[in-house]
C-alpha cells in the first residue's frame, strides 16, 4: 500500500505560506477538473460581506471530499483579490486530484491483496482571523487547513495569507511588524514559552523560525504556526504561539470574557471514532486547563490533578472518575493513537468542568 510522506514545504506565492504538507507528485492545474463544485455560500456574522465560500466535491468513490474554499470579496485591490482567490482554489483542486489518484491506487492494491478499503477523506476548512477592521487596521489574515484522513489523526497542511488591504494590496511580513530583528525577538519568545512546558514539546527540534514562517494576525497579535510533529508530539496538532505586535493594543473582550482563559482546538487536532464521537488529545487539553498528569503504564491509566480536583482515565474503559464520585460513562472509552491518549469531547465539560463552544469549525475551550 502506498503511503503519503510527511515533509516540510515552504511556498511563497502572492502572500501564501504553505507548511507541513505531504509529498505528492506535481499535478497540473488542468488535471484538477475532477473537483466537483457543490455550492457557493456566504458566511454569516460581520464577515458576510467580506468573504464567501465555495464547496468542492469528488467524483471518486474512494475519496470523500469535504472541501470548503474561501473566496475573498472585500479587498480594495480587486486584481490582487482575484489572483489570490485563484491560487487558493487551485491548491484545493490539485489536492482533490492528487488524493483521488492516491485513493484509487490504494484501493486497487488492497483489492488485489484481498482487503477492503474505507474511502479516504479530504477536508479543507478556513478561518478569517482578521478582516482589517480590528487592530492593526487594514490587515486581512486568513488561515486555511487542509488534511486527509486515511486512518489515525491525519497530517494537516496550514496555509496562511496575511495581506495589507489597500488600493495596491501587499503581503504583510514579520519584519514589517516586528522590525529588522524580528527573528531574534520571536525566537526568544518561543523558546521561553517552550521552556515553561518542555514535556509538551521537542525543545531540541526548535531551531528558530524560518524566513517564510507561517503566521496570521488576530486581535492585535501575531500567531506563529508550526507543522505537526515539527516541534511537538502529534497530539499538539500544529503548535501556535501568540505574540503581541509592538505598538498595537491587544483587543480585549468584556470583563466576564477577560476573567476566563481559553484556547482553541482545531479540526486537525481531533478525530471522530467509529461511532461518531469527537475524540480530543487528553494531555494537551488537560495541561492547558492546568491539570498535572501522571501516566501509570502498568494499568494504562492517567491520573489528573488540579488543586482539590482529581480524576483518572484508563485506556479502553468507558468509566470516568471525578473526585470521590462514582465513575460515569461518556459514550466512548479512551484510546491510544500514536502513543497519545484521546478522550471524548464530553470529558471537557463533564469531568474537567470547562466550557465549550464551536467557532468556524474549531472548538474553543474556556475555563475560570
Automatic annotation (TrEMBL):
Keywords of the record: Signal
Signal peptide region? 1-31
Segments forming domain DUF3298: 176-244
Entry superkingdom: Bacteria
Enumerate the spans annotated as Deacetylase PdaC domain. Answer: 58-152
Please report the name of this protein according to its UniProt entry.
DUF3298 domain-containing protein
Which species expresses this protein natively? Paenibacillus oceani
* Domain Copper amine oxidase-like N-terminal span(s) in chain numbering: 273-362
Query: What SUPFAM superfamilies does UniProt report for this protein, alphabetically?
Result: Copper amine oxidase, domain N
Amino acid at each position: 500500500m502506498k503511503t503519503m510522506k510527511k515533509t516540510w514545504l515552504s511556498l511563497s506565492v502572492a502572500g501564501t505560506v504553505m507548511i507541513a504538507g505531504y509529498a505528492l507528485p506535481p499535478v497540473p492545474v488542468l488535471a484538477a477538473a475532477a473537483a466537483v463544485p457543490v455550492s457557493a455560500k456566504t458566511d454569516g456574522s460581520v464577515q458576510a460581506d467580506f468573504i464567501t465560500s465555495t464547496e468542492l466535491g469528488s467524483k471518486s468513490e474512494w475519496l470523500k471530499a469535504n472541501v470548503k474554499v474561501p473566496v475573498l470579496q472585500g479587498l480594495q485591490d480587486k486584481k490582487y483579490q482575484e489572483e489570490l482567490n485563484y491560487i487558493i482554489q487551485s491548491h484545493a483542486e490539485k489536492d482533490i486530484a492528487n488524493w483521488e489518484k492516491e485513493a484509487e491506487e490504494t484501493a486497487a492494491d488492497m483489492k488485489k491483496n484481498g482487503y477492503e478499503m474505507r474511502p479516504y477523506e479530504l477536508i479543507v476548512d478556513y478561518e478569517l482571523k482578521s478582516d482589517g477592521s480590528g487592530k492593526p487596521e487594514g490587515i486581512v489574515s486568513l488561515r486555511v487547513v487542509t488534511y486527509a484522513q486515511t486512518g489515525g489523526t491525519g497530517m494537516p497542511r496550514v496555509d496562511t495569507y496575511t495581506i495589507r488591504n489597500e488600493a495596491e494590496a501587499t503581503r504583510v511580513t514579520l519584519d514589517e511588524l516586528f522590525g529588522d530583528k524580528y527573528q531574534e525577538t520571536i525566537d526568544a519568545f518561543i523558546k521561553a514559552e517552550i521552556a515553561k512546558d518542555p514535556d509538551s514539546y521537542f525543545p531540541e527540534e526548535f531551531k528558530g523560525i524560518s524566513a517564510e514562517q507561517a503566521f496570521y494576525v488576530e486581535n492585535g497579535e501575531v500567531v506563529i504556526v508550526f507543522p505537526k510533529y515539527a516541534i511537538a508530539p502529534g497530539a499538539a496538532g500544529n503548535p501556535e504561539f501568540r505574540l503581541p505586535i509592538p505598538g498595537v493594543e491587544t483587543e480585549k473582550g468584556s470583563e466576564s470574557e477577560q476573567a476566563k482563559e481559553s484556547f482553541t482546538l482545531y479540526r486537525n487536532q481531533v478525530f471522530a471514532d467509529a461511532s461518531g464521537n469527537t475524540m480530543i488529545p487528553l494531555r494537551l487539553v488537560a495541561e492547558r486547563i492546568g491539570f498535572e498528569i501522571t501516566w501509570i503504564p502498568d494499568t494504562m491509566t492517567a491520573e489528573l490533578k488540579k488543586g482539590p480536583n482529581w480524576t483518572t482515565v484508563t485506556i479502553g474503559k468507558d468509566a470516568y472518575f471525578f473526585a470521590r464520585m462514582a465513575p460515569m460513562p461518556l459514550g466512548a472509552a479512551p484510546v491510544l493513537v500514536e502513543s497519545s491518549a484521546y478522550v471524548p469531547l464530553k470529558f471537557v465539560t463533564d469531568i474537567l468542568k470547562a466550557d465549550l463552544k464551536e467557532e468556524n469549525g474549531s472548538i474553543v475551550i474556556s475555563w475560570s
